[in-house]
Task: inverse folding
């Protein structure tokens, strides 16, 4: 009886060991597939725009127009310039990353030029991808010549990658969401803003998170304030400091001064010193006069004449009619009698003013080389038409700091 029990135990133990080994092999196979899938992706996030919002005249291998186009697409020209130098010197990763980047931008001439750097050094990935592009363009003869130069072995398409001579080859493909993003850009140029917003939302949901700024600005232009706040909040959560100003501005102009204050404070601490006055007014509205006076003094020190007058009246014991005072200051709190009607309007007017200034110097210099820095909260003159495409370009670049 004991022998039978021992035999059963041994059999069960062997069975458990077999299952365990099978699971390990299965997990190992799964991990290998995951690693292969990851290796099939080409990274272009390395080119994302950081703090640079203007072209750099010291960059020699990108024209001002090329730099501006990269900035408009929230790509850092200095990083691309550095990668171009590496690609010309034969760096494989630089070649493939740049080729993928320009493929996303639909600049096929640049894609072919960059892949040619790799072809000249007999890199299988470059030859394979250039062959695919040439074949898609109908240039079968040149494509076949490149295929013939590949290492011995079959060339097939497998899960987004090819195999050349036993080597795995990454294939350039459009980034998920890029088509929708590009359609959104085209729709903005056609002034079809509602449709553009839908396309940018698709791009965002597909993984292009920087589309949140486009969606937010379009909602703001279309007067969908609650949606604009929601999308600016997404941008703020991923570290876009300027989005705090936009959220605070919308809430402030909607009569929610106290609710707007945390966002305005964040924007002020990020360098937007002209917001001291609305911060002071939000405290004043709550009858928190110690904090209100503190911020009125800060605003006055920053050059706001209305703030200076308010400080004088408070310190002399004068009574301020809160309702009338607030009505007047909303129109002039930026320290100038010609200020914008509201915080949110100041953003649009600022862009209009810059467009007008740039037009006046077109005959003298190139605008790409002389763009003024964004000054979101400063007052500006009104013009008859708002160019939403310019707002998109300038604000989106500004928000990726």
Result:
């Amino acid at each position: 009886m004991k022998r039978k029990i021992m035999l059963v135990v041994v059999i069960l133990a062997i069975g458990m060991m077999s299952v365990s080994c099978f699971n390990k092999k299965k997990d190992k196979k799964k991990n290998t597939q995951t690693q292969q899938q990851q290796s099939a992706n080409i990274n272009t996030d390395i080119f994302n725009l950081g703090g640079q919002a203007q072209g750099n005249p010291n960059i020699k291998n990108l024209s001002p127009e090329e730099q501006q186009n990269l900035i408009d697409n929230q790509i850092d020209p200095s990083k691309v310039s550095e990668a171009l130098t590496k690609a010309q010197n034969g760096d494989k990763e630089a070649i493939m990353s740049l080729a993928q980047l320009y493929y996303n931008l639909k600049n096929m001439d640049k894609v072919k030029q960059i892949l040619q750097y790799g072809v000249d050094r007999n890199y299988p990935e470059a030859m394979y991808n250039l062959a695919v592009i040439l074949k898609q363009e109908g240039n079968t003869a040149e494509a076949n010549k490149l295929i013939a130069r590949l290492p011995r072995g079959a060339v097939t398409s497998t899960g987004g990658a090819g195999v050349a001579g036993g080597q795995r080859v990454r294939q350039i493909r459009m980034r998920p969401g890029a088509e929708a993003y590009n359609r959104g850009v085209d729709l903005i140029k056609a002034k079809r803003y509602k449709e553009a917003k839908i396309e940018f939302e698709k791009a965002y949901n597909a993984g292009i998170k920087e589309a949140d700024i486009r969606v937010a600005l379009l909602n703001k232009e279309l007067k969908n304030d609650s949606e604009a706040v929601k999308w600016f909040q997404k941008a703020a959560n991923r570290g876009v400091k300027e989005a705090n100003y936009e959220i605070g501005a919308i809430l402030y102009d909607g009569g929610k001064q106290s609710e707007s204050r945390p966002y305005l404070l964040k924007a002020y601490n990020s360098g937007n010193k002209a917001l001291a006055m609305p911060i002071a007014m939000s405290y004043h509205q709550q009858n928190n006069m110690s904090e209100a006076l503190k911020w009125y003094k800060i605003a006055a020190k920053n050059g706001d004449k209305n703030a200076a007058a308010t400080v004088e009246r408070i310190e002399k014991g004068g009574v301020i009619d809160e309702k009338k005072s607030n009505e007047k200051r909303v129109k002039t709190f930026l320290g100038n009698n010609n200020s914008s009607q509201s915080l949110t309007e100041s953003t649009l007017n600022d862009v209009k003013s810059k467009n007008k200034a740039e037009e006046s110097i077109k005959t003298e210099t190139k605008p790409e080389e002389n763009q003024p820095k964004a000054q979101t909260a400063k007052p500006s003159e009104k013009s008859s038409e708002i160019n939403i495409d310019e707002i998109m370009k300038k604000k989106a670049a500004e928000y990726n700091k």
